[in-house]
Amino acid sequence: MTTIPTNPYPLELSITGEMHDGYRDVLTPEAIQFIIKLEQKFGDRRQQLLADRQERQLKIDAGQLPDFLPETAQIRKAEWTVAPLPTDLQDRRVEITGPAGDRKMVINALNSGARIFMADFEDANSPTWENTIQGQINMKDAVRRNISYTSPEGKRYALQEKTAVLIVRPRGWHLEEKHFRLEGRAISGSLLDFGLYFYHNVQALMANGTAPYFYLPKLESHLEARLWNDVFLFAQDELHIPRGTIRATVLIETILAAFEMDEILYELREHSAGLNCGRWDYIFSYIKKLRNQPDVITPDRAQVTMTVPFMKAYTSLAVKTCHRRMAPCIGGMAAQIPVKNDPVKNEEAIAKVRADKEREAYDGHDGTWVAHPGLVPVAMEVFNRLMREPNQIWYKREDVQVTASDLLAVPEGVITEEGVRTNISVGLQYVEAWLRGYGAVPIHNLMEDAATAEISRAQVWQWIRHPRGVLQDGRKVTEALVKQMLTEELQVLKTAIGLERYETSKFPLAGQLFLQLVTEDDFEDFLTVPGYTYLQ
Ligand SMILES: CC(=O)SCCNC(=O)CCNC(=O)[C@H](O)C(C)(C)COP(=O)(O)OP(=O)(O)OC[C@H]1O[C@@H](n2cnc3c(N)ncnc32)[C@H](O)[C@@H]1OP(=O)(O)O
Ligand SMILES: O=CC(=O)O
Ligand SMILES: [Mg+2]
């Protein structure tokens, strides 16, 4: 535990994370003061909005399904646009993402040839104290083009002349930073991530001709967007930065936000840089929010693709909504990553990514995400071929007519034993890595992160409870069956890595946590919340 020797703040503050090299360069007294102000000003509103989420869930459970809001009909009807895009956000055809805390990856991503690098404190980042603060050090050094790294093998990494534009994704509103407590209460992870990045870098970014850009994750309503907008206004005013300097792209990755896309853009219109279709969390949210509806159930995770009707409806509506408001609509992440040492499988993976990017470009997206530098040329070739201008905001998609029932349409397909086992095995492997501090991992040649793992555990939870949670062979998915499969899948993993590695791994804890998440009656809103109690 690190105590601040003389506490200059009027409130009781404790920062309990260990202090390593460079940490005091980001946790400066002035930056801490700024974070305290943000938390004092916005902490209670965040808590209230989280409580509103619970109330909304009760209404959905009682049969009041999500719909477009009558009270904001005027915003949807009226003609307005978001503020003009800054020059360096006009062409976002390929965006690479990766955990902010991994210094080597940050350099590789900036050098990857992608237009944008989204440095992630969310889905791809396990929020250990070390990842959080090292992530801020990495950001500070990257903004100043003063970032380098030498690998244990002696390979040296430094920035090339031309690098990607930086966008930072702070944690979602549900996550807290337990190492930073004010009056005994953990502060918001979102405000910490946003506040440190903004405080340290706004001046340097502006001097470089860019600005603080953010991706905002997991919003569930326009009121949550309003909170972000108010945070931006306050932060800019505090540091005497012109209003509208910050620009933010909101991930539409919850089923509820899909009904409020116009409203979200409107709330942020002075700061908006458009929307992104965060497909993995979106599928998770669809399952989570509708989990108690008698007629809603999803088939095997692999069958819930981007072309199932509810996914197609939401991405088309996102493009149409953005373009009407002169905002870009960025596509999402295909899960495939390059396959090492198997050219045939590698070509199959690349072909799947290419097809996904072609679909996005044809549908009108203004750019897309990739998970790996090896996929930058693949996505770049597609968007260069299919999107000749910097973006295709001109493509208004007036053909798109999406209703509430289109957004809620239940996907068809079957649940198989392999589907249940894959969910369990992938969930275990992901949670094990996350508990060790790795927020994105390759499993079976697919990128897995917090959002994809959430789908796996949410499906298992629902299949146990739903009367139609029945395998193709007629067996009901039950708690007993899941427990048996989990024991077997853990055994498979133990055999694969060997007893010695297993015993020093986090698999026993991951098994316990995963079992708890899928068997307890109350559905945990995010696996990362109980998981966080185990993180350093
Ligand atoms: C649902 C969502 O939110 S999607 C967005 C969040 N998810 C992500 O950001 C995932 C990003 N991707 C990754 O983290 C990684 O690609 C992984 C974990 C899936 C795979 O990583 P690895 O196993 O290291 O891949 P691999 O061994 O093929 O890497 C080869 C090289 O590419 C680099 N690399 C791989 N992915 C990335 C990336 N996203 N950004 C920068 N560099 C990367 C590696 O650092 C490595 O560099 P080196 O050759 O200098 O050592
Ligand atoms: O954040 C992106 C997603 O797909 O989830
Ligand atoms: Mg997400």
From TrEMBL:
Residue numbers annotated as active site: 169, 449
Keyword entries, A-Z: Acyltransferase, Glyoxylate bypass, Transferase, Tricarboxylic acid cycle
Cellular-component GO terms for this entry: cytoplasm
GO process annotations (BP): glyoxylate cycle; tricarboxylic acid cycle
E.C. no: 2.3.3.9
Catalytic activity: glyoxylate + acetyl-CoA + H2O = (S)-malate + CoA + H(+)
GO molecular-function terms, A-Z: malate synthase activity
Pathway the protein takes part in: Carbohydrate metabolism; glyoxylate cycle; (S)-malate from isocitrate: step 2/2
Malate synthase N-terminal domain mapped to chain residues: 14-73
SUPFAM superfamilies according to UniProt: Malate synthase G
Domain Malate synthase C-terminal: 415-533
Gene3D superfamilies: Malate synthase, domain 3, Malate synthase, domain III
Pfam family, one: MS_N
Record InterPro entries: Malate_synth_C_sf, Malate_synth_sf, Malate_synthA, Malate_synthase_CS, Malate_synthase_TIM, MS_C, MS_N, MS_N_TIM-barrel_dom
Malate synthase TIM barrel domain ranges (all copies): 165-409
PROSITE patterns: MALATE_SYNTHASE (PS00510)
Family: Belongs to the malate synthase family.
Protein name: Malate synthase
Gene name tied to this protein: aceB
